[in-house]
C-alpha cells in the first residue's frame, strides 16, 4: 500500500519496491483490467480510420503513459517548519532519519520524466534558517524566486499544465511569516482548512496531477 499514517517517523521497509517495480506493475494492472479500448465500428464503412482522430489517437497525442506515474511523497519537517515533496525514497529516508520529520503519505502521482503535454515541476530551496521548499512549473516565477536568493534544488518531476487526461488541480498555499512554508495538495478540504484554520494564503494552482485515489477506486481512461 502507498498510504501511511501521519505519525510514521520511519520509511516503510518496502518503499523502494513500491516505487521501483510495484508502482508501475500496480498501475499497469489496473489499466489492463479497467480501460476498454473502443473498436472502430462506429465509423462508416469505407472510411480510412487511420486518418480519423479517434479517442485512442487523441490520448496517445496528448496524455502521458499512466504506467510511468510515480508517487509524489509529502514530508512535514517540523524542525525546518516546512513541507517537502519528493519522488525519491532516498530523500524520504534522509529527512525522516536525519530530522524530526513525519511522513504524510502520497500527495499525488506525477511523471518522473517528460511525457506528452507535461512541464517540469521545479523545486527551489530557501537559504534562510529555517529553510523552505518552493515548487513551480512557471519558469518566469522560478527565475524571480532565484533572484531573491533561493537555490535550485531539483526538478521534482513532470505534471500537466492544463486539466487534461483525468488530472486534478494541485493547489498551492503559502504561510507568510519568518518561518515561511508552502503546502501543495489536491484536496479541497485540506486547502480550505489551511486557509481558514492554519493561516495559509491561497496562491492558486501549481499544475495538474493524477490522484492516487483515482487508481484505487477505478481507472482513469481519457
From TrEMBL:
Span of domain DUF5648: 79-210
Transmembrane domains' residue ranges: 14-38
Database matches in InterPro entries: DUF5648
Protein keywords: Membrane, Transmembrane, Transmembrane helix
Pfam families assigned: DUF5648 (PF18885)
This protein's record includes keyword Membrane: yes
Protein name (database record): DUF5648 domain-containing protein
Organism listed in the record: Mycena sanguinolenta
Amino acid at each position: 500500500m502507498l498510504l501511511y499514517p501521519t505519525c510514521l517517523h520511519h520509511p516503510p521497509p518496502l518503499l523502494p519496491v513500491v516505487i521501483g517495480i510495484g508502482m508501475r506493475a500496480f498501475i499497469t494492472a489496473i489499466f489492463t483490467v479497467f480501460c476498454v479500448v473502443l473498436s472502430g465500428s462506429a465509423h462508416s464503412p469505407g472510411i480510412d480510420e487511420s486518418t480519423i482522430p479517434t479517442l485512442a489517437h487523441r490520448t496517445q497525442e496528448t496524455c502521458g503513459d499512466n504506467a510511468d506515474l510515480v508517487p509524489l511523497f509529502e514530508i512535514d519537517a517540523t524542525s525546518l517548519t516546512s513541507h517537502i515533496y519528493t519522488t525519491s525514497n532516498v530523500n524520504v529516508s534522509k529527512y525522516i532519519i536525519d530530522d524530526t520529520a513525519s511522513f504524510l503519505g502520497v500527495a499525488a502521482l506525477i511523471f518522473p520524466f517528460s511525457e506528452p503535454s507535461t512541464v517540469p515541476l521545479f523545486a527551489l530551496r530557501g537559504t534562510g534558517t529555517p529553510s523552505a521548499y518552493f515548487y513551480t512549473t512557471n519558469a518566469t516565477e522560478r527565475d524571480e524566486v532565484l533572484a531573491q536568493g533561493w537555490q535550485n534544488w531539483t526538478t521534482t518531476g513532470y505534471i500537466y499544465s492544463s486539466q487534461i487526461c483525468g488530472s486534478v488541480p494541485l493547489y498551492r498555499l503559502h504561510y507568510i511569516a519568518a518561518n515561511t512554508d508552502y503546502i501543495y495538495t489536491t484536496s479541497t478540504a485540506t486547502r480550505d482548512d489551511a486557509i481558514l484554520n492554519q493561516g495559509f494564503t491561497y496562491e492558486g494552482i501549481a499544475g495538474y496531477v493524477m490522484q492516487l485515489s483515482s487508481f484505487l477506486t477505478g481507472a482513469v481512461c481519457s
